[in-house]
Amino acid sequence: MNILALETSCDEISASIVDEEFCVYSHIIFSSVDLAKKTGGVVPEVAARDAEKKMVSVIEKAMEGFSWDDISAIAVTNGPGLIGSLLVGIEAEKTIAVLHQKPLIPVHHIFGHVCANLLSSHPEKPKQKPKFPSIVLTVSGGHNDVLLWKDWDDIQILGSTIDDAAGECFDKCARMLGLEYPGGPALSRVAEMGIPGKIHFPRPMIHSGDYQFSFSGLKTSLLYFLRDFPKELTPADTANIAWGIQDAIIETLVLKSFIAVERYKIQEVHISGGVSANTLLRKRFQEECEKRGIAFRFPKNIVFCTDNAAMIGAAGQVMFQNRPQKKWNIENVQLNMDRKNFGF
Q1: Same domain? 241 vs 324
Q2: Which domain holds residue 81?
Q3: How far apart are CA 75 and CA 62, in angstroms?
Q4: CB within 8 A of 330, min separation 6: which ones?
Q5: Is position 128 within any domain?
Q6: Which residues pair with 157 in a beta bridge?
Q7: CA 251 to mean position of chain CA atoms
Q8: Does 171 share its domain with 117?
Q9: Is residue 235 situated within a structural domain?
Q10: Residue with more model confidence, 49 or 264
Q11: What is the Cα–Cα distance from 9 to 12, expressed in whole angstroms?
Q12: What is the mean pLDDT of residues 78-89?
């Protein structure tokens, strides 16, 4: 049972075909990152127009080697995200669903990230299904959530960011340091050359007793630090500052996530989203899971960390298989900007 999936929530236009065992048979991503580099970030209207231009070619390329008889259903991201980009994707998939008489599954973007850890590129390799309950940290530029995944279609948001997400903090701090766009990966690369512990930044809300995050104050802390720095930054200074910022972000994510792990009888811990590609974040999570003797999952292919259609296909499979009685038609596919409503 193959699902054709489309993801257009931000500046990526992606199409993928994923089967019922979460194996990825086709995966195409077109990113407008080069456009974003010119403006120092994503401009919503530009991203939407770019998605509209590339949509047909991306879908056609994903469908190479497949006929519409090979496709059982269609999945599309219906939110949250940039409204213009989302609408381009939703209307494209509605049209395809009507033309080819296919069920249409609306997928919440964050649930897509949750399902990224189910994906495999090897059809002959047995898939290891998740063990419930699991704690999932989804962390990117636009969202930052600690989730309790109780069953396939039963997920609870324990905590979220109350202002900026960790990925946005990475990007904005990188910009303050004069690093290239996209800032998160650039800051991490520079941090590798820094001296651990040389510069310390605050860990926001680590004593709040809940699962909420706040990273706006960390950006402000860096702003004041740079304002009061007594000399022009050398490459060594920049590396040490980058190490301090990265360490503050990652330690906060780890501490908050494992508060939830301690409270619930957890079988596995997952991380997903763009920041889950960070090597140090993976290392710290792995260490904490090993201490507790529990499994740790992260996207095996780094492509599945950032926004991509394969994760939407995986989420579509979960919803299609676990809600077979639901009428998956275009009338039920509406824009969903509610961060807490996964549409189950």
Answers
A1: no
A2: 2-121+302-332
A3: 14
A4: 94, 97, 98, 104
A5: no
A6: 147
A7: 19
A8: no
A9: yes
A10: 264
A11: 7
A12: 94
- pLDDT, tens only, 178-195: 999 889 999 999 999 999
Distance separating alpha carbons of residues 326 and 344, to the nearest angstrom: 10
Write down the residue that tokens 């995050």 correspond to. 213
End-to-end CA distance of the chain: 21
CATH for 142: 3.30.420.40
Q: Report how far residue 110's alpha carbon sits from residue 97's, in angstroms, rounded to the nearest whole number.
A: 23
- How many domains in the chain? 2
For residues 113 and 169, membership in a common domain is answered with: no
- Tell whether 58 and 140 lie within a shared domain: no
How big is the CA angle at 144 (ends 143 and 150), to the nearest 5 degrees? 110
Q: For the whole model, what pTM was predicted?
A: 0.94
Residue 106 included in any domain = yes
Q: Which of 308, 273, 306 is nearest to 166 (CA)?
A: 273
Same domain, 70 and 102: yes
Residue 339 placed within a domain:
no
Phi, psi of 176 (to 5 degrees): -65, -30
266: nearest Cα among 155, 136, 157, 158 = 136
Q: Where are the alpha helices (DSSP H) in 131-234?
A: 166-176, 183-191, 216-227
pLDDT: is 62 or 34 the higher one?
A: 62
Token reading at 1: 């049972």
Instruction: Give the integer Cα–Cα distance in Å for 74 and 92.
Output: 11
- 201 contact partners, CB below 8 Å, separation of at least 6: 218, 221, 222, 225, 244, 245, 247, 248
Same domain as 103, residue 222: no
Q: Quick one: pLDDT at residue 126? A: 59
For residue range 252-304, list pLDDT tens digits in order. 999 999 999 999 989 899 999 999 999 999 999 999 999 999 999 999 899 99
pLDDT given for residue 177 in this prediction: 97
Mean pLDDT, rounded, for 293-318: 95
pLDDT average, residue stretch 53-81: 96
Question: Is 197 found in the same domain as 91?
Answer: no
Do 285 and 309 have their domain in common? no
Measured CA to CA, the distance from residue 165 to residue 128 in angstroms comes to 30
Which of the 8 DSSP states describes residue 276? G
